[in-house]
C-alpha cells in the first residue's frame, strides 16, 4: 500500500502508539499554555478550549438534561483528543492515530461500556426492559434484535471515524505522488474540514448513546 514517509518511527513500537503519545503531549502543552495566561476576554488557545467546553456543555444539557453535566470532562476530552489526532495527519511526516482501527475501537468501547454502565446504575433491574420491546409476547424476538443493535453501535461508531480519516489520508497521499502540489493542497484544506466534522460526529454520537441509556422506558 502507498504510504507517505513517517518522520518519527521507533522500531518495535506501532506508529499509532507513537502518534498517540505525541498528540497527548501536544494537548497537555496547549492546555498548559492556555491555563498559564487566563484572561477575562479569552483569545487564542484559551478561546479554543472554552469553545469546546461551552459546546459540550450545551449539547449535554440539550440531549441528556441537567444530569449530563457529570459527563462533560470525558466528552470534552474525547472531542479534543480526536480532533488533535485527526489534525496531526495533515502535517507531513505524521499520521493520525484515528486512521487506525485500534484507536477508534478503544474510544468506541469506552462509550459502549460507559453508556450501559450508567443506564444500569440509574435504572438497575428495570434497565432490561429496554431490550424486551413494548409487548411481553414479542420479548424473545425483541431481546435478540435489541442486543444485536446495541453490539453494532461500537462497531459502527469506531468504523465511521477510522474509515473517514484513513480514506482522506490515503487520498491526499496518492494525490501528492501523482499530481502537482496545488490540487493536493486544496484536498488538505478539505481534509482539515473533515477532521473537525468527524470529531464532532463521534462526540455527538457518544452523547446520544449515553442519553439513550439514561432515558426512561415507557
Can you give a write-up of this model?
With 218 residues, the chain is an all-alpha fold. The protein has one domain (15-214). The protein contains six helices and no strands. The protein has helices at residues 15-36, 44-63, 72-87, 101-123, 139-178, 182-214. Helix 4 runs antiparallel to helix 5. The radius of gyration is 20 Å and the shape is globular. The termini are far apart. 26% of the residues are buried.
Give the tags.
single chain; 6 helices; 71% helix; mainly alpha; globular; 218 residues
SSE layout and pairing:
Layout: H1 15-36, H2 44-63, H3 72-87, H4 101-123, H5 139-178, H6 182-214
Helix pairs in contact: 1-2, 1-3, 2-3, 3-6, 4-5, 4-6, 5-6
Radius of gyration: 20 Å
Taken from the alpha-carbon principal axes, the silhouette is globular
Proportion of β residues? under 5%
CA distance, first residue to last residue:
51 Å
The total strand number stands at 0
Into how many domains do the coordinates divide? 1
Mean pLDDT over the full residue set: 84
Q: Which bin fits the share of residues in helices?
A: over 70%
- Structural class of the secondary elements? mainly alpha
Largest sheet: none
Number of helices: 6
Low-confidence stretches: none
Order of helices and strands: HHHHHH
Amino acid at each position: 500500500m502507498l504510504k507517505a514517509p513517517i518522520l518519527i518511527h521507533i522500531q518495535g513500537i506501532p506508529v499509532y502508539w507513537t502518534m498517540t503519545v505525541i498528540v497527548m503531549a501536544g494537548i497537555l502543552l496547549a492546555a498548559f499554555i492556555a491555563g498559564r495566561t487566563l484572561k477575562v476576554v479569552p483569545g487564542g488557545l484559551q478561546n479554543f478550549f472554552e469553545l469546546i467546553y461551552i459546546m459540550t456543555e450545551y449539547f449535554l444539557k440539550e440531549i441528556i438534561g441537567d444530569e449530563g453535566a457529570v459527563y462533560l470532562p470525558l466528552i470534552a476530552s474525547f472531542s479534543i483528543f480526536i480532533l488533535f489526532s485527526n489534525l496531526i495527519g495533515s502535517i507531513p511526516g505524521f499520521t493520525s492515530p484515528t486512521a487506525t482501527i485500534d484507536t477508534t475501537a478503544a474510544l468506541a468501547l469506552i462509550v459502549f461500556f460507559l453508556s450501559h454502565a450508567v443506564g444500569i446504575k440509574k435504572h438497575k433491574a428495570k434497565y432490561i426492559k429496554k431490550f424486551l420491546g413494548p409487548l411481553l409476547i414479542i420479548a424473545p424476538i425483541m431481546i435478540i434484535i435489541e442486543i444485536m443493535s446495541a453490539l453494532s453501535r461500537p462497531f459502527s461508531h469506531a468504523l465511521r471515524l477510522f474509515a473517514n480519516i484513513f480514506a482522506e489520508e490515503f487520498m491526499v497521499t496518492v494525490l501528492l505522488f501523482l499530481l502537482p502540489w496545488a490540487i493536493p493542497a486544496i484536498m488538505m484544506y478539505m481534509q482539515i474540514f473533515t477532521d473537525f466534522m468527524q470529531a464532532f460526529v463521534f462526540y455527538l454520537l457518544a452523547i446520544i448513546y449515553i442519553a439513550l441509556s439514561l432515558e426512561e422506558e415507557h
